[in-house]
Amino acid sequence: MIRGPRERFGPAVAVVAVALLLVTVVGAWPPLVAVESGSMEPAVERGDLVVVTAVDRFPWSEPVGSDADDPPTRLDGAGDVVVFTSPVDPRRPILHRVAFRVTAGEDWTDRADPDLLDGADCTDIATCPAPYDGYVTYGDANGEYDQSAGIAPVVHERLIHAKALVAIPHLGHFQLAVDAAVARFGVVPAGVGILVAVSLVSGTGAFLVGRVREGWRTRNDRKGGRRPPR
């Protein structure tokens, strides 16, 4: 049986359509972020897929920290969880929780949780006093602020790309595998390999579905006393 383009590439087209719909709704690209580390465990683990939305998307406003009087609840914790770029390693966006907002020149350790400073004070931290308005952030599992640990400086608002909404367990492993393939083989070879794999998987799925339907039709014909067509 010859499979047409629809049967071969139908699932791939459906995936692209869902991705475009997500971009339209959440206003961020990519709308799904695969988690590479365990810094946000136990709510978010490595290999989870996180749905994100643009920071300025209705009804959101600027990120709200865990120190707010009535902070939003995000991913089993208080305060917004955001995706931002760190100048320390711009190639790897960070998904961490907002602790509080700071203003330029502020000694923000006065408002910090001592347990998350690991004994440091303002003189020990490169971005204290705050060099500009921004946010202090942390990973739930790290036990220390990103700024005191040297993971990132005070996060400027222009470096924040999105807010995290919900985590889907384990579905991020595919994206991590794709990223690894692109890093190793390049965009074009990895893209060709992915298209071939999608075609094979979708074609195999269509073939199996067709066989199941044919089997059910044959069985029903036999029950009705009719001979199956040759």
Query: For the report, how would you describe the main beta sheet?
Result: 6 strands, antiparallel
The shape is elongated
Beta content: 15-25%
Structural class: alpha+beta
Q: Major sheet: order of its strands?
A: 1-2-6-3-4-5
Task: Give helix % range.
Answer: 25-40%
CATH architecture of the largest domain: Ribbon
Instruction: State the fourth-level CATH superfamily of the largest domain.
Output: Umud Fragment, subunit A
Q: Estimate nothing, just give the exact number of structural domains.
A: 2
The overall pLDDT, averaged over residues, is 76
Order of helices and strands: HEEEEEHEHH
N- and C-termini, Cα separation: 14 Å
* CATH fold topology of the largest domain: Umud Fragment, subunit A
CATH class of the largest domain: Mainly Beta
Cα gyration radius (Å): 24 Å
Low-confidence stretches: 1-29, 200-207
Count of strand segments: 6
Task: Work out the helix count.
Answer: 4
Describe what this molecule looks like in 3D.
The chain has 230 residues and is of the alpha+beta class. It has two domains: 62 residues; 141 residues, Umud Fragment, subunit A. The chain has four helices and six strands; from the N terminus they run H-E-E-E-E-E-H-E-H-H. It has a six-stranded antiparallel β-sheet. Helix 3 packs across helix 4. The longest helix has 37 residues. It is elongated, with a radius of gyration of 24 Å. The two termini are 14 Å apart. Keywords: Membrane, Transmembrane, Transmembrane helix.
